[in-house]
Amino acid sequence: MNALTAEWVSKAEGDYATAGRELQVDDRPNFDAVCFHAQQTAEKYLKAFLQENLVRFPKTHSLIELLELCLPLDVSLENLRSDLIRLGRYAVHYRYPGESATKTEAQMAFDVVTAVRKTLIEKLETGG
Question: Model confidence over 82-98: pLDDT tens digits?
Fold first, then answer.
């Protein structure tokens, strides 16, 4: 794994850990933050995959735009599309007043990103 890929993975793991910790908080958990950090985890893992494969990518938070760049490298990543669509809305959805995530939604976001993370880690480890 090249050095910049490792940095993307490290950042992704930080977001993943933050989301997981926030789900465990008993006093005033921030479910909005769980959803946001779940989206960020997926975004950074997609960018790590692209970086490892030397594919340039724009500054974007669109998980689908990043997925489209990944597909020529590994068509099996198409299986992530529905999960990435679900996570994609969390880039901004709960960051502003008007709506808040529920515990159920936060748990779902964490479960979804756990599966996305597992797939992308496997791809990075196998060079796929």
Answer: 999 999 988 888 888 88
